[in-house]
Please model this.
Amino acid sequence: MADHLFLLRLSGDFYTKARKTRVRFFRRLVANLEAALQGHRIPYRLEPTWSRLYLESPDPVAAEVAARVFGVQSVSEIERRSWTALEDLVATGVEFFGDAVRGKSFAVRATRRGDRERIGFDSMRIESVLGRALLDSGARKVSLTEPEVAVHVELEPGIAHLFFDKVMGNGGLPIGVEGRAISLVSGGFDSAVASWLMLKRGVQLDYVFCNLGGAAHRLGVLKVMKSIAERWSYGSSPRLHEVDLSPLVADLREKVTPANWQIVLKRLILRAGASVAHRGGRLGLITGDAIGQVSSQTLQNLAVISQAVPACLILRPLLGFNKEEIMGLARRIGVYELSAAVAEYCDLAPEKPNTRAALADVLRDEEKLDLDLLDRLVDARHVHELRRIDPEALASPVPEVEEVPPDATVIDLRSAAAYKGWHYPGALHLDLPHALAAYRQFDRGRSYVLVCEVGLKSAHLAERMREAGFEAFQLKGGLKALLALAGREAGMAAALLAPAVRD
Model:
């Protein structure tokens, strides 16, 4: 069948397990591999052995796909040859490796597997004899530390596997062997990487997304999590539960002490996730918290936030990670660009957030909220099948303009301090909650261009305004484009002045 034969090595975790557990893990790994190859429409044949898997396929992409399946430590494209004596092995090695090492430095790496007594010589003997033969056939020199070419021989009684390199996998455990949990996601780097790390440890995930920013926020999150589902969640069909938390957030902003906004919000999100986990029989919650990264992630605040769901297991795989490490992993798993485009919802960012909240104070604030509303919002959640969904089909893109039309009103949704520091000439200032409450009284005969720090609040308001029949736009390029536009317009106005006045 195959033009390519690949050797798949198992994660080291397999070798520490009792036989019964190892067999269970191995069966799940085979099922996940088959799901991965079938999902990418790659023809294949799998040959399982006790400690290896052999994969035949006419498609070389099979190696890359197999390496992304958790439980696979590495993949090598191999040549399988039979042998009876060391002389046969050396002749085969010179034939296979000779052209690749000619004129170059090289090293021979040999290992033995299976019944070593039937092989009759050790790995060092193979390396020495084959290395000598390759030198005689035209290789430049042996370099054990920095070879230009490394050649590998993996020997079993009667069978030799010859190969050049390894495509490294991620090891870990096959998805599904460690049960099911819920991961709380926002579309940013942290929650995506935390989810990936738990998938790597064999936990099968569904996701809860508490939507605070409307269609634009939903679109960004769906793109990130669909990538995780399609590239890494082989053997499962993950779902994303979208809870529209905006009605409760409006109540929170009005009734809760500003310094505690983020802490109470995180407690509400934990409760929403725990509610979905409980209803689906999931074992716990995963978050992207890293100690000290933001004000709500101090050790004191994490303790106060966790108290919201005392009966729920909370897993925080990123607690000891630096931001640079998290972003490096986001690049490695292929979501960096997608997550970078998902702005953090910034309407609940007080000037002086509490870094050491007292539980009693937070509970007093929380008593002011209608927590029964949270249950109703969870009941009304929308469930997305991540493998099947097309995020763009759900998008309600806000039309963009590259210039501010002459008759348009610019509404600046940034903080009052930022607005006072600089704003576009003639722009009006409204914070998002007041704008959401007041926009229906705006003049419907005018058009509106909305701006904010990163584009999420402006997209949210524009979405609501357009649904109500207003002509509302975002400025393409956001605040940076608005600054450039203001500078350009000022320059154009100066150019109209007489030279004596202009200079």
